[in-house]
Amino acid sequence: MHYRSQEVVQVRRAYDCDVLVIGGGIVGLSTAYAITRAAPGTRVTVLEKESGPARHQTGRNSGVIHSGIYYRPGSLKARYAVRGAAEMVKFCAEYDIPHAVTGKLIVATARDELPRLHALVQRGRENGLTVRELGAAQIAEYEPEVEGLAAIHVGTTGICDFTAVARHLAEASGAEIRYAARVTRVDRRPDRGVAVRTASGDVVRGRVLVNCAGLHCDEIARLTGDEPGVRIVPFRGEYYELARPELVRGLVYPVPDPAFPFLGVHLTRGIDGGVHVGPNAVPALAREGYDWRTVRPRELAGTLTWPGSWQLARRHWRYGTGELHRSLSRAAFTRAVRRLLPAVREEDLVPAPAGVRAQAVLRDGTLADDFLIQETPRAVHVLNAPSPAATASLPIGREVARRALAELEGPGR
After folding, report:
1. 20 to 30 A from 373, CA-CA: which of 110, 167, 400, 401?
2. φ, ψ at 123 (rounded to 5°)
3. Measuring CA to CA, how many Å separate 152 from each of 9, 65, 101, 133, 275?
4. What is the rounded CA–CA span in Å between residue 94 and residue 287?
5. Residue 208 pairs with which residues in a beta bridge?
6. Residues 88, 391: contact at Cβ < 8 Å?
7. What are the pLDDT digits (tens) for 181-201?
8. Would the pTM count as exceeding 0.85?
């Protein structure tokens, strides 16, 4: 027994950590947090290329804790969003992170949206949510300035500071967090583990790799030697802030188009009391292309040479044209907002920071509509985790942790 203990210690010393997580957004940090709670003593290192956590999708979204009403019953998105929303509210309350359960309205403004609104009611109830149906006159009970033909109210939707959540997960995980550690090379050997080189020349060795790299997750998968079967096609979401926030009390959404994964331009009163309007969804010219000026030719070429990008463009060119028009014309964006909020004026919309959605697209142009997690020897790749991933981050983290620990404890380990 004494010799066996020495052997285990020597093996552990050959590695810098047991689980090496790439990506310091909310999903990567939730995974680290879940691993150290499920298996105390497991050494976890997180590599994040930025100088702090949550600099991309986590820190640039609208801060909404989604209810789970939109997602296909039984899907990971549906199950994890419903569960995650409740857990996120509890987590924020426990650690004094700013949050509020506000509820939200989904409003139909045209007759052809009414069947889709009714379908959302059914979907929400299948997902275990309480949904209240409203006639046109009842909308004013919640939002006096909003107009529509009908609406539904979902009480479990909320808002929070996801960046603060990510920071707390980083602190509470007990993991070693290395910032300014951009991964440039991965050497994965199924019989031994992984060695990762960063841009600074550091080498970090682990027994199992977890890829939570968000906008760069498919690139990390390929560096590992795995073909993910999808490419991340970045879509920029552009926001405005409402100069007259008194026009909106809470959260107001249009009825989404089921053929596209984006929810449309909506109104969100955040935890700071300001109201954000947006986002639209336009192709970004770089994976971190937060404006039209940011162009990275290699990344753009990667998008344009993926067959799925062209299939997607052919399938949704009408939708895309409208989004581009609203991106380039504040007047067109204002008209879209007025469908919900007739009192808004063009001068009420003040530009706000944009976000970029990491959307996985299959080779045939199909948009991955669920969370996508792929396991390969010594690696777990999170390949599609856009909205509602922040809401669902605690259950996602547990699922990724479960798979990583199973890989860690597999035969011959």
Report:
1. 167
2. -65, -45
3. 59, 17, 16, 4, 20
4. 35
5. 19
6. yes
7. 999 999 999 999 999 999 999
8. yes
